[in-house]
Design the sequence.
């Protein structure tokens, strides 16, 4: 059950950061402000998830690997956000 929650937090971070980026893109004229909002949302969610995983897991290797996986997820979700927001931005311009 804990492993399902581990990966569900990554999915939740992806969905919420995309929603935040999309909603702020409607109110902005440039791409970077919505991208930064979505990255900040991503960092907050996965940062808190990393702390949760580190405090609840008992094995040291599992703690380290879990935090590393969350850091990799942060980078990949930020890249996905940039691509998706740039696609949405180009559709709004045309």
Sequence:
């Amino acid at each position: 059950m804990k492993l399902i929650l581990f990966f569900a937090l990554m999915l939740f971070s992806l969905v919420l950061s995309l929603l935040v980026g999309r909603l702020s893109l409607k109110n902005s004229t440039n791409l970077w402000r919505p991208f930064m909002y979505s990255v900040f949302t991503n960092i907050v969610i996965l940062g808190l998830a990393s702390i949760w995983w580190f405090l609840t897991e008992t094995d040291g290797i599992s703690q380290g690997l879990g935090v590393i996986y969350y850091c990799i997820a942060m980078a990949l979700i930020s890249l996905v956000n940039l691509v998706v927001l740039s696609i949405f931005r180009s559709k709004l311009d045309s």
In short: The helical segments are 2-26, 32-56, 60-93. The chain has a mean pLDDT of 93.
